UniProtKB/TrEMBL annotation:
UniProt key word Hydrolase: yes
Pathway(s) served: Glycan metabolism
Region Disordered: start-end pairs: 458-481
Keywords, sorted A to Z: Carbohydrate metabolism, Glycosidase, Hydrolase
Presence of keyword Cell cycle: no
Lineage: Bacteria, Bacillati, Bacillota, Bacilli, Bacillales
Subunit structure: Homohexamer; trimer of dimers.
Biased composition (Polar residues): 460-481
Name listed for the protein in its UniProt record: non-reducing end alpha-L-arabinofuranosidase
Length: 500
């Protein structure tokens, strides 16, 4: 069976410039993300600093522009001073967030070195759980001040003459959550966040700050939390954060694939709340969104209950992703690109081993999960201006959502390189979706490639067969006289690349 959809894409219907940081990711001191993930000194591919070059190679394929670090829940109990200076003298500490032991072999400077190797900037989080203004302003001074002060000279004495010049900083992590070390009310957090923000910017006025929004849209304090926090911090921060994780817990595929509509609603609500505070303050400034944790996360929940407390780098949050997860990740990317005018930063949580597109074996290979592909396609081909398209698609209802379009899509125009890229998910579980798109404003553009990720088994993974869920370029998209036509296989992720 075939269902029909129609669309018009016009280069003048601009949503906004895509900030490349929307393709960011996240490395937390959690599980095997750092140790045995990015860092494994005994691994055959380890470089002179002990970083796995096979992992660096895969991360480079993703063209990750920004990596959030060092947490996550971990940051709310972290003393950054434990992770700098001679490695042999660094303390072992209990990490109360994940009930593990942190050896501090990797800290701020080593991570900055790793980020340089993958050509990424770092989105550094400060501890507003057990610490506050003083530790945060000292960290900015340590990282960003050139020299001639206690903390900058300490950095130099640690072998880092040049400042790290970290631009983007998070004011704590998920401070609305009772699981957070130092959990606060919105008023309490708003007060500490604004005072910390002021001190950090007094050290380095060029930095940008992200205030903590809600841990997800279903928190009881959402969206009052955002309103209160922004009421306190509006003039001193630049972004408000959003976090969300989804899972197919009821094994209801139609409902699962519709969950990106929850993300749409979340983004819309946070924009509205931020703009309400803008109106209330009669401010000319606009607060943008940092979706600094997003992904699928549920496969590993039971296994994590069996982790031995206080072990070092145990295999935590090691979700093995299947094909249906890759489809939802594709739709989540589409949701953020559709609001590229306001979502300026986003971090796929996380990058290696922990709910990650890249997995490693100790002493062995690094491999790509199913979700690696939509993330890579968006990051590599989704640079430029996001475009509105008028879409007419048949729809379905699911347990939690009504009017779910089978066709989920967004387009990106790169004016400089004269390319147009269409990202699309066909959510239909049995039918091919046949698309006719009016692309007359892209005169002279031809299809360069139609990439497809499809699989007859929605539960297929790459765990035992690394090429089980991999894309091919045999899609049938073509353009004739300003009309693009393409067939999207049932349950597929599609990337149509056009160029002049
Ligand atoms: O990414 C895993 C965890 O999810 C993070 O540490 C926390 O911020 C969130 O709850």
């Amino acid at each position: 069976m075939v269902v029909q959809a129609k669309m018009t894409i016009d280069k003048e219907f601009k949503i906004g410039e895509i900030d490349k940081r929307i393709y960011g990711s996240f490395i937390e001191h959690l599980g095997r993300a750092v140790y045995e993930g990015i860092y494994e000194p005994d691994h055959p591919s380890a470089d002179e600093q002990g970083f796995r070059s096979d992992v660096i190679e895969l991360v480079k394929q993703l063209q990750v522009p920004l990596v959030r670090y060092p947490g996550g829940n971990f940051v709310s109990g972290y003393n950054w001073e434990d992770g700098v200076g001679p490695v042999a003298e660094r303390p072992r500490k209990l990490d109360l967030a994940w009930r593990t032991t942190e050896t501090n072999q990797i800290g701020t400077n080593e991570f900055m070195d790793w980020a340089k190797k993958i050509n990424a900037e770092v989105n550094m989080a400060v501890n507003l759980g057990t610490r506050g203004i003083d530790a945060a302003r000292n960290l900015v001074e340590y990282c960003n001040h050139t020299s001639g002060s206690y903390w900058s000279d300490l950095r130099i004495s640690h072998g880092y003459t040049d400042p790290h010049k970290i631009k983007t900083w998070c004011l704590g992590n998920e401070m609305d959550g009772p699981w957070q070390i130092g959990h606060r009310t919105a008023h309490e957090y708003g007060r500490v966040a604004v005072e910390t923000a002021k001190a950090m910017k007094w050290v380095d006025p060029t930095i940008e700050l992200v205030a903590c929004g809600s841990s997800n849209r279903h928190m009881p304090t959402f969206a009052e939390w955002e309103a209160t926090v922004l009421d306190h911090t509006y003039d001193h921060v630049d972004y408000i954060s959003l976090h969300t994780y989804y899972g197919n817990r009821d094994n209801d595929l139609g409902n699962y694939l519709a969950q990106s509509m929850d993300m749409d609603q979340f983004i819309y609500s946070v924009i509205s709340t931020a703009d309400y505070i803008k109106a209330k303050k009669r401010s000319k400034k606009t607060i943008n969104l940092s979706f600094d944790e997003w992904n699928v996360w549920y496969h590993s929940n039971d296994a994590d209950k069996k982790i031995e407390p206080w072990s070092i780098a145990p295999p935590q949050l090691e979700d093995i992703y299947n094909f249906e997860d890759a489809l939802l990740v594709g739709s989540m990317l589409i949701s953020m690109l559709k609001r590229a005018d306001r979502v300026k930063i986003a971090c796929l949580a996380q990058l290696v081993n922990v709910i990650a597109p890249i997995m490693t074996e100790k002493g062995g290979e690094a491999w790509k999960q199913s979700i690696f592909y939509p993330y890579m396609h968006a990051s590599v081909f989704g640079r430029g201006t996001a475009l509105h398209s008028t879409v007419s698609s048949p729809k379905y209802d699911s347990k939690d959502f009504t009017d779910v379009p089978y066709l989920d899509t967004v387009s990106v125009h790169d004016e400089d390189n004269e390319t147009l890229t269409i990202f699309a998910v066909n959510r239909h579980q049995t039918d091919v979706l046949s698309l006719d798109a009016d692309v007359r404003s892209f005169e002279g553009y031809k299809v360069v490639e139609h990439i497809v990720l499809e699989n007859d088994d929605v539960k297929a993974t790459n765990q035992h067969n690394r090429s089980n869920v991999t894309p091919h370029s045999n899609g049938d998209a073509s353009v004739d006289n300003g009309q693009l036509s393409a067939n999207f296989s049932k349950l597929s992720w599609n990337v149509i690349r056009l160029a002049k």
